[in-house]
Design brief:
This protein is α/β, with parallel strands linked by helices. It has two domains: 151 residues, 3-Layer(bba) Sandwich (FAD/NAD(P)-binding domain), CATH 3.50.50.60; 150 residues, D-Amino Acid Oxidase, subunit A, domain 2 (D-Amino Acid Oxidase, Chain A, domain 2), CATH 3.30.9.10. Helices cover 25% and strands 28% of the residues. The chain has an eight-stranded mixed sheet. A six-stranded mixed sheet has the order 8-2-1-12-19-18. It has a three-stranded antiparallel sheet with strand order 9-10-11, with no helix packed on it. A hairpin with a 3-residue loop joins strand 14 and strand 15. The longest helix is centred in the N-terminal third of the chain and has 19 residues. It is globular. Bound molecules: flavin-adenine dinucleotide.
């Protein structure tokens, strides 16, 4: 066969889509050891609202990502993409001024609405008003990954078991893994790459994130509210609230500390009563220079890695998967900013 894929989160499914389009044969391994793509908020937002700076390559990434998710919606006859306005609640006058300064940045300005929103929204703290970001939205990554795994299962293209790196044998240009012979392996393991002896030298860092789902009967907002944390509308007065950033904890287990942090921050965002109905956690595969980790092993050319999607897997995955596929198949140059060569 052509490919073995290890891991079916956003990275894995974006790469598999390339394989299907090109009529390649493949098998996926998935062992449920990581949860990032299952628990993600799924938000795509072209602007970093802490600094009002552009997200790296946002325009190009969105141009590839949005049709990608639209195609999957058609493929599965399901809705994954929910478009909404992102409303930044200003913390101070200074925060407001920084927003207006951002109009000087040509990569940010097209996404910002010049008119401040001075409305009041029941239960939302907004004494310094709101700024609207356009072209944002959310992919329901949990629904998407589940649908994708089911589709692979129905086609016998996935094995729900751990891929054991020690069992790889190299035979000329091929690899053998148990009863399989393949030309290439692509590792899309998220934080699981730390267990991968071929790529665990890469500087991937754990950034655990936790998210709450709340039921707030008196809160009725249809936009994504961005303040010290985000409040994301799910419908029926349910909202996702997140997320934490923890650089020490390497587990995907929801914690009391995570919950307390979110509850504390939420006090500065909404004033209405709510009930916590769920809490989830995962590890973001983050990199210090905030660029993905993509490329070919320096010695074993059959082995490839697609990782380091950090906090923005939704926007980045389709672009980098395409770049890696074209690099492997046609020798197209990898974007030097994502190429693992920068660390080898
Ligand atoms: C709380 C939280 C909120 C987030 N919010 C957003 C957001 O709003 N927007 C956004 O764009 N991003 C968000 N992210 C980041 C996003 O989740 C990641 O960028 C993305 O999901 C990473 O995808 P991945 O496929 O690289 O990794 P993963 O989703 O971790 O997938 C890797 C897969 O590989 C499997 N695997 C690993 N090792 C093996 C092995 N040896 N054998 C078999 N299978 C294996 C794992 O089980 C896993 O399913 C958030 C993350 C968290 C934790």
């Amino acid at each position: 066969m052509d490919y073995i894929i290890v891991g079916l989160g956003l990275a894995g499914l974006a790469f598999v889509e390339e394989l299907i389009k090109a009529n390649k044969s493949f098998i996926v391994f998935e062992d449920d050891s990581q949860t990032s793509s299952l628990v993600a908020g799924g938000v795509y937002n072209p602007v970093i609202l802490k600094r009002f700076s552009p997200v790296w390559n946002a325009k190009n990434q969105l141009a590839i990502a949005l049709p990608f998710y639209e195609h999957l919606e058609k493929k599965f006859s399901q809705t994954f993409d929910q478009k909404f306005v992102i409303k930044k609640a200003f913390k101070s006058i200074e925060d407001q001024n920084n927003w207006f300064s951002a109009f000087d940045k040509p990569t940010v300005a097209p996404f910002l609405d010049a008119k401040l929103d001075k409305k009041t929204y029941n239960g939302v703290i907004g004494e310094h008003y709101f700024g609207n970001v356009k072209e944002g939205g959310r992919i329901d990554t949990h629904k998407l990954v589940e649908a994708y795994r089911k589709y692979l299962k129905n086609n016998h293209w996935i094995r729900f078991e751990k891929f054991n790196h020690n069992d790889i044998l190299f035979e000329g240009n091929l690899v053998t893994y148990h009863n399989l012979k393949a030309s290439k392996i692509v590792f899309c393991e998220g934080f699981g790459v730390k267990q991968n002896p071929y790529f665990n030298h890469l500087p991937l860092e754990e950034v655990k994130g936790e998210i709450l789902t709340i039921y707030a009967p008196k809160l009725e907002i249809k936009f994504l509210l961005k303040s010290t944390l985000f409040v994301l509308p799910l419908g029926n007065h349910r909202y996702k609230v997140g997320a934490t950033f923890n650089h020490k904890d390497k587990t995907s287990i929801p914690s009391i500390e995570g919950k307390d942090e979110l509850v504390e921050k939420l006090k500065k965002v909404i004033t209405v009563p709510y009930k916590i109905i769920d809490q989830s956690a995962g590890i973001r595969p983050a990199v210090k220079d905030r660029r993905p980790l993509v490329g070919v092993h320096h010695k074993y050319k059959q082995l490839n890695v697609l990782n380091g999607l950090g906090t923005r897997g939704v926007m980045i995955a389709p672009t980098v998967a395409k770049n890696l596929f074209q690099h492997i198949e046609f020798g197209t140059e990898l974007d030097p900013e994502i190429d693992i060569n920068r660390f080898d």
